[in-house]
Task: structure prediction
Amino acid sequence: MLQPGTPVQVKLDWPETRGPCHIRTPHYLRGRMGVVERHLGDFPNPEDLAFARPAARLPLYHVRFDQPALWGEGYAGDAIVVELYESWLEAR
Amino acid sequence: MDDLEVPRAQHDMGGVSKFMCDPVDTDTHALTDFDRRVDALRQLLGAKQVMSVDELRRGIEAIPEATYHQLSYYQRWIRSIADNLLVRGVISADELRAALEAA
Result:
């Protein structure tokens, strides 16, 4: 379990290039650094549910990202918070 | 900011400049009878465990890009529902065609 405050990097992966998939990690976060804000609970992996496959429960987190670095707009201190599954995160 | 040169899927629109040109429409949208029927069908299919909301989303995301942008929100839903039910054999292509012609 990742603790609040843990720096994480979103995996730089493109399952979209490997065939049909259902991915809930936005393209603009792939490879980006963020910080775990809180654990939201454990939920069946939607990437498997989308194909009616057995789905393991994965921890889901709110992860905070620096907005100006992501979007090229906004002010210092602006952040966006996105729900991400642990399978997409690597502690740094 | 230039768009990222990445293999994003067509529904994955966050931060893409061509979708940032118009202000966000925050008005309440009135639901049509069609919208309500599609939503009711989706709820029934979920309650009867024929199709999950995750399968609905995957089906929406699989709509070819040109078609995707032509369809309304609930038209995308019914397209995904039809595709899912055809793949699962819940309905046949002939049954779907006959129902559409009768409508």
